[in-house]
Design a protein that fits this description.
single chain; 60s Ribosomal Protein L30, Chain: A; 2 domains; Jelly Rolls; 17 strands; 6-stranded antiparallel β-sheet
Amino acid sequence: MLSKTKTAWALMASLTFPCLLLAQKEIPLNNPSFEDTPIAGKAPQGWYDCGAPNETPPDVQPGAFGVTKQPNHGKTYLGLVVRDNETNEAVAQRLARPLEANECYEFSIDLCRSETYISLSRTTAEMVNYATPVVLRVWGGNAYCDKSEMLYETNVITTTRWLTYTFRLHPKRGNYQYLTIEAYYKTPTLFPYNGNVLLDNATPIRQIDCNMPLMVESPPPPTVEVVVDRGKKGIEQLPSAERTPPTQPTPPTPTVYVKPNPPSASPTETIRRNSLRKGSTFQLRNLYFDADKYTIKEECIPSLEAVYRFLLENPDIVIEVGGHTNNRPSDDFAQTLSNDRAKAVADWLIGKGIPKERVQYKGYGKTQPIDTNTTPEGRKRNQRVEFKILHMQEN
């Protein structure tokens, strides 16, 4: 009888002990509902301001800058903005226990966007509405505001009502004692813009089984285009091209569980390290631009993912993204357009988590054609992006 009792207790312990271990590894956040006295330019208690040195801190809302949305939990929430001078807001805190490398975690935050967020433009000094949708990024690091590894990025937050977003974190490069949450531009970012995101009611960070699937798949990201009038006329025609008007953002479904989009399992193009040296230049067959445009086309994403995978697997490599046009634009416009193309590609790679110091960009205008400019096909080949190896360790 005694042996049966011991066996029963042993079986119970074997079933419950793993659950107890996971429960013990739950990491609470300090002030997860961002409660504080509503005030502009002050991070809520328990959170550290990680914004640009010469910019104001985030805001404890509601009440500032015309933001009137009611909290989803408690009495206040956090407002983060991005600005048209290439600065953005972020907050951080030291975790009670570190996120461990190669372990998986989940936590949730209620998010939405305010239709009204009135403040001065940093570039024009005029009152504008910071209402353009943004994304939210989560970083792991080992000091306040340290962004050692991007652990998550949401789709664009277009909703103007509170929805719950669940983040799955999977640190790979190390253990992280600090967590940073930042608002960021929709990428590729052709021009910085003014936008906002509101945060409320975060849950503790829970350790989970890395093989556990999400209960609900992420919906496709809504189409959002940021349009900035630069006062320039596009003239790189093949023979004619019209600018596409911005599409209206599509509201997401009521409850959204978001997960990151990994590189394609089978990219359409392969970049081989053994064929490259310092100074080598390579071009992808399926990466090109429409005439007079610098928006990355959806069908080009698999090729960009091939570059992303290559850089991820070769952390010693530094590249330059070079933008080019055909000979139809004026010299000045060609230079601007080619630089915008290179920056769009560089921003896409950096947005995926490649360190910005490894991705440089430069516009070459129409000075380096690779085909004739007398045919539509040749002009299309000339309006391209190339990649140059600036640094790599010799084998």
